[in-house]
Amino acid sequence: MLFVLASITSNIVGSIFLLTGIAKVIEPWKFAQHITKLNLVNPKLIIPVALTFTAIESALGVALILGVFLNLIILVSILLLFGLSILTYWSTSTGKTTDCGCYNGLFEITPTQSLILNAIYIFLLIFAEFFGKYQPTIFWQWLVVLITLITSYALAAGSLEYIQENGRPYIDFTPLQENRMWQIEWLGEDSKSLMSGSVIVVFMSPECSQCKHWLSLLKLAQLQDNLPAIVGLIDTENLQIGQNFVDRYFLNFPVVAVDKRLYKKLKIEVVPTAVLLKDGVIQQRWIGLMPMWFINKINQG
């Protein structure tokens, strides 16, 4: 009976690893942004680190499910969970991040809940290590793990390339999708000015470093009559913070301070995010990266 339970426990943790790995494959920019906030990795290495971790996480999940070299894989998984728990405690207690980043936005959990879950996973793996009785690994099993490692890396890299070229992810759950109308209730009275002409609405945050890289380009775009007007949104209801943001960066376009709940409602999980509207209809959405065609238009102007 204990052998069966040990197999089930390793499968449970393996399934969690695989699920979170798939979440990162689909939206790797979220995890990359989380790594950026930690400020522990050279900016040039953030993308390779995010892709590599995603691939390893997915491969570990498959290895635990298939029973590949389980004595070693369980030990590696325990050490990984322990290390991630320390990192989560440090990053959230110092204010660098607000969550563990483990689930890539798939679930909304607090840092405390994350630490408790990690402790449960470690307990399950220790149980599997002591009471499991495993068959020798055969060729096709570790081959599947290797294929998972390579495929996960390639798909995550492909997701990043796709969003860079198209301004939207493969799989899109947000209400801000192409050919949908901007809803008046999202901004109330401030929405009326967005319902005619071409407008780019940019979702930002005062703490976002990438947003600051966008600002100089957005200010140039606002000066050019042949480009859409710019409207900025920042996730704070404190009007003074909003005004300080405008003054600090000498912004020449309107900025509206909004409730953080609007970002959650519209599933704005990465900033900066922008939508291009034409007569109130969403034409494009950009996440994290401004498309090259728009940058080229600004430079040509």
UniProtKB/TrEMBL annotation:
It comes from the Bacteria. It is a multi-pass membrane protein. The chain crosses the membrane at residues 6-25, 45-66, 72-90, 115-132, 138-160. One of its GO terms (biological process) is methylamine metabolic process. Residues 5-128 form the Methylamine utilisation protein MauE domain. One of its GO terms (cellular component) is membrane. This is Methylamine utilisation protein MauE domain-containing protein. It comes from Trichodesmium erythraeum (strain IMS101).
